Amino acid sequence: MASFKQLKLFVDKELDQCLQNVVRPFTEHVYFPETLIDPLEIEKHHHEVQLQNLSISDTLACATCQTQFADRSEQTLHFKSDWHRFNLKRKLRNQLPLSSEKFEDMEKDISSISGSDSSDDDLSDNEGSSIDGSYNACARNNPKIILTLNDGRHLSFYRCLLHGKRNIPQESQELILTAQRLPLCIHWGLVMAAGGHFAIALFERDKIIQHKTFHKYIIRAKQGSAQSAHDQKSGGKAKSAGANLRRQNMLHLKQKIQELFISLKSEIQRCSLLFVRAPSFNQQLLFGEKNSPLTASDSRIRSIPFATLRPTFNEIKRVYDQLTKMELYPQDYQFQKIEQEKTSVMKTKQPTATRKTAVDSSTDSEDKSDDETEQQSSSKQTVKKQPIIPIMTTDRKILPAEDLTTFNELFTACRLNDIQRFDDLISRLRALKTINKSPSIADILNYQTAGSFDTLLHITSERGHLKLIQRLLNEGANPALSNQRGKYPYNLSKNKEAKEVFRLFRNDYPDKYDYNLGQVAPSITMDELERQHAIERERRRQTKKRRTDKQRSDQERQLREQEEEQQRINFLALSEKEKRTLAVQVNFETNKRDELHLGRCWQCAKKISDEPFTYFDYKFCSTACLKAHRTKSKTTV
């Protein structure tokens, strides 16, 4: 197969000539419909379907795919299937759902199910008849676009150079005109912000005319998240010095970015394309506020369609070099074959844990030994730990249709904490099992759902329904059954009270279940539990008392400080003559101490020690106040 040729925009003159010779998009990578479906008819169809299904259904069904199920496990698996997700995307685009047979036929022909990746001729009338359902989906799954030249060759480059997510072309001619005008867009801007790092660069053709990078400490150490994101997630603000520093740095970073964009306003307005990389919380640095540097409605803004590293000047240059690279393919280049090879490689890749478990029984012992030696050698080279797959202790049993319906009703009652309904269902089961004892009530209560292998005890423990946990344990629900994740009901208990129910039941019935296997904590009596609760209440009372005493002492201290400040202000308001007169009066009234002036500095009015700095009848707290007072006295004289 012939190889392709790599060209650089604004550098290779051959590339400018190729862009002018573009005649049409390559049909395997882009589709523009010839006829459109009337959306009013589709909406009318959905309206009629809704009118027909106004009655409350008493069966397990999916309204999107228009199918019914025998039990809840089958319904749960359906909601996780590709068929259901595919029909959901079609419903959002006002398209009719596909049947399971038609979906399976389509799945055999395409490599991935993403809603509208099909290029099959049978589905072109229904699937690709909407622009939003064909070209937009193609743009999401293929970051590059392939255009065909008039001589049969193909040119490939990143789709974001032609349009963004908000200005998708409505016809192929518009796409071709945009590609032909691409060499005229000589002014580009690249903006990257991530993890407190910011970088911006403005390009004119292949030259950098402006660039700036800086960094602020806003990421929490060993956490990998910004302080603002942590505050939003936790619902409260941390009061540590580091948290306050990171919040302050976040404000400084915003202010610095705004000032930089103001200084570069004329150069940025001249740019034809603006490529922005600001993941997650970094969006608030560039968008969303009144004085934000950029607006989301700007048609020039494009997202960078590949992974980037930390925003630095070298990374900015690498991204620009990657965006301006284009590939020129010969006429006989097989794109479809290359894609099939890539998809087949992706399908063969499986996790190491699944490869170890899925060993074919028909392979010879020699092949097995070779595989084991290869896995041992690869495990020595790589230090990464393999994921541990939980081992199920019991096999999942299948219930008859009648008992499965009863289990579904019990499942709903446990989720909704409907105790009355649960008791009614158990009473009905007891009446039925007196006649037919296969399976027993315990088998129904310990039934494990498909997929997750959760029992009713898992559901109630995870939601913290204390009374239902007690009833299930009494009726025969086994706490030693694990789900697919290897979790036992005791491990999934929502709160401490739910775990106490298990421990109390273990004390009352020590031999009924294998509590050690179910990882239930040691048993506890009601008296011991009451004693622990009393100790916990006393501890909380003491904590509350200490908090109240501290608040009271803080209030008293504030009152004393306010009184002291008021006395100091009153003392400073006195003149020298009034201070001297009061001092003479105090000398005659030795038994009466006036805190207004006695024991205070005559310059700053602060309380002083028993041995102040004095001259004449004046008292000072320090030599500085004494010097300031003498200087003041000399100037007034």
Automatic annotation (TrEMBL):
Q: Where is the composition biased (Basic residues)?
A: 540-549
**GO CC annotation terms, alphabetical:** cytoplasm
Q: Report whether Signal shows up as a keyword of the record.
A: no
- Which BP terms from GO are recorded? ERAD pathway
Q: Where is the composition biased (Acidic residues)?
A: 363-374
What residue spans carry the Low complexity bias annotation?
375-386
Active site located where? Q227
- Where is this chain compositionally biased, Polar residues type? 346-355
Protein localization: Cytoplasm
Q: ANK repeats at which positions?
A: 452-484
The reply to whether Membrane figures as a keyword in the UniProt entry is no
Residue ranges constituting the VLRF1 domain according to the UniProt record: 184-326
Q: Where is the composition biased (Basic and acidic residues)?
A: 550-564
Sorted alphabetically, the keyword list is:
ANK repeat, Coiled coil, Cytoplasm, Endonuclease, Hydrolase, Metal-binding, Nuclease, Repeat, Zinc, Zinc-finger
Give the span(s) annotated as Disordered: 346-387, 536-564
Cite the GO molecular-function annotations of the record.
endonuclease activity; hydrolase activity; zinc ion binding
The entry assigns this protein to a family as follows: Belongs to the ANKZF1/VMS1 family.
Domain comment quoted from the record: The VLRF1 domain mediates binding to the 60S ribosomal subunit.
- The name of this protein is VLRF1 domain-containing protein
Species of provenance = Adineta steineri
